[in-house]
What does this fold into?
Amino acid sequence: MVEFLGAKAQIEAGILSKGMITIFGHCCADYNGRATSRLAQGKRLVLIKGDGSVSIHQNRLVRPTNYMVNTKIACEIGEGCLILKANKKKPDESLTINFTEICEIKCYDMEITDDLRLSGSERDLNDLLMQDLSMIEPGLVPINQQQHFRKGVADIVAQDRDGHFVVIELKRRQADFASVTQLSRYMKEVEKLKGIKTRGILLAPDIRKNARELLEQLGLEFAKLDFELTPNEKEKAKIKGLEPKQQTITQHLGKLK
It folds into this structure.
C-alpha cells in the first residue's frame, strides 16, 4: 500500500522529469469529450508517459481501456482518494481517474527515441500521402494521421472539396474482405462523431474479388496503389503510381440518369 501523499509527490516528480510512471491500484475513471464514458471501480494499471499520454490497462487485450494523448496532467488528494486529471483543450477532453487504493507506483527515467521503422517503411507511405493527397483526388486536405478509434487506428482522415470527411486506409498487400469491413467501421465512427457524410477510400496494390464486391455494395472506393518498399532504413518508400479510383455504384447510376 502506498499513502496518497507520497504517491502524489512521486507522480508530480515523474511528470516534471518527463519520466514513465506506472500506477497499480483500485480505481474508477470518467471520460468527457466528444462522448462520455465511465469505467467502474476495479484493479488496473495506469501508465503516464513523458509525452503527456495517459492510458488505463486491464488484465486483458493489448489496447488500453481508456486513454488520452498530449494532455496536461494534474494530481490532487480528495476525500479518501487520489485524483489524477488529464485535460486537453483541442478538442476539449478530460479523463479523471480516482484511486481508492494504490498498491504500487514506480517512475522510470527513459529516453525518448525515434519511432520504430517498420520493415518496408509503411509509415513513409503514409507520410508521403499526407504531403499531397491530390494524387488520390484533387481537393483532398489531410486532417489527421494515425487516427485512433475504439477498435483500431485509421491511416489518414481527410476532407474533400465538398466538406465531406474521408477515411483513407492503406494496405501494403492485396486488400481482403477484412480490409473493407475495417474501412467501413472507421468510416461509420467518423460519420457518427462528426454528424456529416463520410467517405471511405481503400488504397492497395490489388483487391480480392469478394472484397471488391463488398466494397461496391457499401459504396466505398478503391484505388490501386503501386509503391516500392525499401528494407534500407536510410532510403524512403516510393510511390510509383496510383490508378484512378473505381466509380462507386452511386456515381455510376448517377451518370445513367
User: Anything to note?
Assistant: The helical segments are 4-16, 122-131, 177-194, 209-217, 249-256. Confidence is low (pLDDT under 50) at residues 114-120, 247-257. The first strand starts at residue 20 and ends at 32.
